[in-house]
Specification:
The protein is mostly beta strands and about 475 residues long. The protein has four domains: about 180 residues, Immunoglobulin-like (Sandwich); about 80 residues, no CATH class; about 80 residues, Sandwich (Immunoglobulin-like); about 80 residues. Strands 9, 10, 12, 14 and 16 form a five-stranded mixed beta sheet that branches. Strands 27-25-34-31-32 form a five-stranded mixed beta sheet, with no helix packed on it. It is elongated. It starts with about 30 loop residues before the first helix and ends with a strand.
Length: about 475
């Protein structure tokens, strides 16, 4: 029986060829892989800078035995200006051409890489999203590719001692915009879609029947991702804001079952004659379309409201007479008129009393003594009256500092706000046969000078008032 044991003194070194002496490399990796260049695909997006692939320190794996696994890693850096999607195609061979069906490789479980088999071979697609480019003085993105290489414990004997195994590969990049990956790479859309699983491929290439690699469990079917429900409800309101069950104001989209972490887009579409008011429940806002990452069950309600033609109502504003006299008006309504308004409109009211009158109060739909005021038009016709009353009168008394120095006119009874014209006329006096005029100094309210004009317009306050005309020689 052929021995399957490997001597423990064997050294398996991924990055070097024969070490020297009796220490032999189990794997070798040529310089070409170390310096592998990131290719841009058919569109050559990296004309302004070459991406690069850098080997990680853990690529040097020593003392690997049949049945073991070795992990090799590379950093793939985008140093071109464009954002790029990635895929990698690896090939491996024993350096002496020995049967290589006893060595298998797959992305490290739990990484951002999946396998996908296309017509021209097996690819590893990067699912971590586009790598950032360097445009705008930013650093290019980096993706770490770690590959588990498995050695079949049943298919590898002592005849493989001292052989080097070369793992070569090409990392391809393609611009991430304008649908280039989907157009040029047949497997891109499916391999990077949420919910895609390469467990079957991993099982075939790693843990197929007759293969003994207990070190690797990546081929086992992973537990199915959690699933969550998106439940969407619709509520419809009439134009008065009342919830009605007899009408449906719109439809919703996006309800269903989704795997954990999936991107979900829901939509609300109002029917003709309705408007969308917003979301409630687990969603909020007034955007008709919302996208979110699902991490649990979501229940939301879309509310629609009927758009109603505004109802027209009559608004009649009438200033009341004082006796048979017009005591005032209302701005915009004159001495009384009816206007048509929509329900919900705001109407501003300002009563303007005539001379000798003051505003008293509103009655009808609007009450109280606030002037100006406003109101919101209700769902029915309204009538409002503006009431005025005779303004009270106050006494204006005019005096002189010296009675013989002149005369004054204009005193009397006046209502508040009345503009009263008061006049002062200087007198004359004689010295011998010569006649002289007294001088008018001014009108005074106490010690306060109001005017130096003989004729002055005085606005009557809401109180009795005494003004004095001062004269001098």
């Amino acid at each position: 029986m052929r021995s399957k044991a490997i001597m423990s003194v064997l050294l398996i070194l991924l990055a070097a060829a024969l070490i020297g002496g009796t220490t032999m490399a189990w794997f070798t990796d040529d310089a070409e892989l170390d310096a592998a260049q990131l290719e841009t695909g058919t569109l050559e997006i990296d004309a302004d800078g070459s991406p690069k692939v850098t080997p990680m320190p853990e690529r040097d794996i020593k003392n690997v035995n049949p049945g073991d696994c070795a992990t090799v890693c590379w950093d793939i850096e985008n140093i071109g200006s464009k954002r790029a999607e990635l895929r990698v195609k690896l090939t491996g061979a024993w350096v002496d051409g020995s049967d290589a069906s006893n060595v298998y490789f797959a992305p490290k479980p739990g990484s951002d890489w999946v396998m996908y088999e296309e017509d021209n071979g097996l690819y590893m697609y990067y699912t971590g999203g586009p790598l950032a480019g360097t445009y705008g003085d930013t650093e290019g993105g980096t993706a770490k590719l770690c590959v588990v290489v498995g050695f079949d414990g049943e298919g590898m004997g002592n005849e493989y001692q001292g052989l080097g195994y070369t793992l070569n590969g090409v990392a391809e990049a393609i611009q991430a915009t304008n649908g280039a990956p989907e157009d040029m790479w047949p497997g891109f859309a499916e391999a990077t879609a949420a919910g895609y699983s390469d467990a079957g491929l991993r099982d075939y290439f790693i843990n197929g029947a007759g293969k003994d690699m207990p070190c690797y469990n990546g081929g086992e079917d992973p537990p199915p991702p959690a699933e969550y429900e998106v439940t969407l409800n619709v509520v419809t309101k009439d134009c008065e804001g009342n919830v009605v069950s007899s009408k449906v104001g719109g439809t919703v989209s996006g309800a269903g079952t989704y795997v954990d972490g999936a991107s979900v887009t829901v939509g609300a579409n109002a029917k003709q004659g309705y408007e969308f008011l917003g979301w409630s429940g687990d969603l909020s806002g007034t955007d008709t379309s919302k996208t979110f990452e699902i991490t649990g069950d979501v229940t939301a309600t879309a509310t629609f409201k009927e758009i109603c033609t505004p109802k027209k109502v009559k608004v009649t504003i009438t200033p009341k007479l004082c006796g048979n006299k017009i005591a005032g008006t209302v701005e915009g309504f004159g001495s009384g008129t009816t206007k048509i308004y929509n329900v919900g409109d705001t109407v501003n009211l300002k009563a303007v009393p005539s001379a000798g009158y003051v505003f008293d109060k509103w009655d009808g739909y609007v009450t109280g003594g606030t002037n100006p005021t406003s109101f919101v038009v209700p769902n029915h016709d309204v009538t409002i009256n503006a009431n005025f009353k005779t303004a009270p009168k106050y006494t204006l008394t005019l005096t002189k500092n010296y009675n013989s120095y002149g005369t004054v006119t204009g005193g009397g009874q006046y209502a508040e706000g009345t503009n009263v014209s008061i006049n002062a006329t200087p007198g004359t006096y004689k010295v011998g046969w010569q006649t002289y005029n007294y001088k008018f100094v001014g009108w005074y309210d106490g010690n306060t000078l109001l005017s130096t004009s003989k004729t002055h317009t005085y606005t009557m306050p809401a109180s009795n008032k005494t003004l004095q005309a001062k004269f001098s020689k």
